[in-house]
Amino acid sequence: MESIGELRTTKTITTSDTTDEVTDVIRDFNMEHAREGASYIDMVIGYLNLYLNIISIFILTMFAIGTNIVNMMVLVKQGINTCVSLCLFCLAATDFLSTLAGLCSQPSKIMMFLNIRPGFDPFAFYFFMVYMSAILYDVSNTLTAFLSLERCLCVCLPLQFKDIFTFWRGVAVIVCIYLLCFGLLLPHFLSSGLEMRTSRNSTFLALWLSPDRAAVDVYVDAVHFCQTAVVTTTVFVCTLLMIVSLNRSSKFQGGKSNEFPVTFSGKNTNNSCVAQTKSEDFAQPSESKAADKTSQSGTKSGNTVKSLNNGRNTSATSNNKSAHSSRNLNVIKTVIVLCVICFVCNLSRLALATASHIDPRFRLNKEHGKWYQIFLSICYVFQLLNCSLNIFVYYRFNQSFRKALLNSLFWKSEK
């Protein structure tokens, strides 16, 4: 009996030991696969980040810089003499500077990756260039919002705002926009700078941050979030109002032109032209019935020439009005498409800012920092698209821009 008890005890101990060993193996296996899964996710995130950076740096950045240079050259060649042309030129210049600052930050990123420090800390230069690019992009978005507001007021309330937005008033508003955007981020410039640091064998320039920099970062994030939200809302509302106003205007003009059509010599003319022609054709005195044929023919020929001249003047005036209205319509369409591009490209930025405010872990150097970096790269790609697509809008809706661009490229534009 004792031997049986000893065997049972031995068997029990052996079974428990085997169970613990199996549990340890399963735990190690799960941890190994978890590490493999985490390493695989890290690898995928690394490739995505590399792919997005290659697109943004080598393709979109260079394309955005080139298109904005072309935009500025063509706009200067056309002449900057209106508020709209001034806003478009400042928009192209700001997009160019913002994209150039983003391009200048990339060599520092490469030096940080390779651990190279050529007399200064690469992170310091990267820090300032990234913030400068972001501030200039805020200026660009604010200029787009002002342009949409200006066109919206001129379309919806033309009698009240037709002559308000002059060239010099536009200059004043644009200067105020620049001062406002840079002034709101003045704490950033006051709480950061450069300082000399000494290591074991060298002295180099490094980034200096004030002790209250954490509070400044919270303020800067709040400013960026509020500014993006206000600009996106303004652009959306103004675009919607312009589209609705244009649809109402086209329906009203179509109904008015078809209200009383009058056929004269095989063509549709309005009542005023017909009345003027009739009054001039039949304005002969009743007392000249016995006049000679020479005077009658001279009077008729004179009235005929006079009516033809009046008809030509009327047609020329109507052609000028139609050409002017067509140009205004193209300007409005240009602004609408620019606003749509700005709205779509800023949605990702607004969504990322909202997510980071809702979940503090969705930030750099946090739990979801790698995913935050991926979405940050996606936002930068949309930013570059917003800065580079304007040339296609100008080429499509601005005939003079298209001709000037083709002439500058030594092509002959078709009439």
Automatic annotation (TrEMBL):
GO molecular function, one term: G protein-coupled receptor activity
Transmembrane segments: 50-70, 82-103, 123-147, 167-190, 222-246, 331-351, 371-395
Stored Pfam families: 7tm_1
Keyword annotations from UniProtKB, A to Z: Membrane, Transmembrane, Transmembrane helix
Keyword Magnesium assigned: no
PROSITE patterns in alphabetical order: G_PROTEIN_RECEP_F1_2
Segments of skewed composition (Polar residues): 293-323
InterPro entries according to UniProt: GPCR-Ligand_Int, GPCR_Rhodpsn, GPCR_Rhodpsn_7TM
Domain G-protein coupled receptors family 1 profile intervals: 66-394
GO CC aspect terms: membrane
Protein name (Swiss-Prot/TrEMBL): G-protein coupled receptors family 1 profile domain-containing protein
Organism of derivation: Elysia crispata
